[in-house]
Amino acid sequence: MKAVITVIGKDQVGIIATVSTKCAEYGANITEITQSVLDQYFAMIMIADIDGLKADFAAFSDALSDLGKNTGLEIRCMHEDIFDAMHKI
Description:
- Strands 2-3-1-4 form a 4-stranded antiparallel β-sheet.
- The chain has 3 helices and 4 strands.
- The longest helix is centred in the last third of the chain and has 15 residues, at 57-71.
- The chain has one domain (2-86): Alpha-Beta Plaits (2-Layer Sandwich), CATH 3.30.70.
- By secondary structure, it is of the alpha+beta class.
- A hairpin with a 2-residue loop joins strand 2 and strand 3.
């Protein structure tokens, strides 16, 4: 299974490292990443393989959300099943 992780906020040093470290702590493997800086704003989308999560998905998602709050970023994590369901007619 996969998760779609989005990160948005003011650009700062270490965003990718910080989010990647949290993913690694939970056993999520980042398989794809794209990021962009527009003026002073940072935007990133990651795809992570979550088959090896060391906790349930809700705990992983909450940890990323909390990380965002602590670093001044908006971090959202969506399970691929939900993401796929939202984009089907």
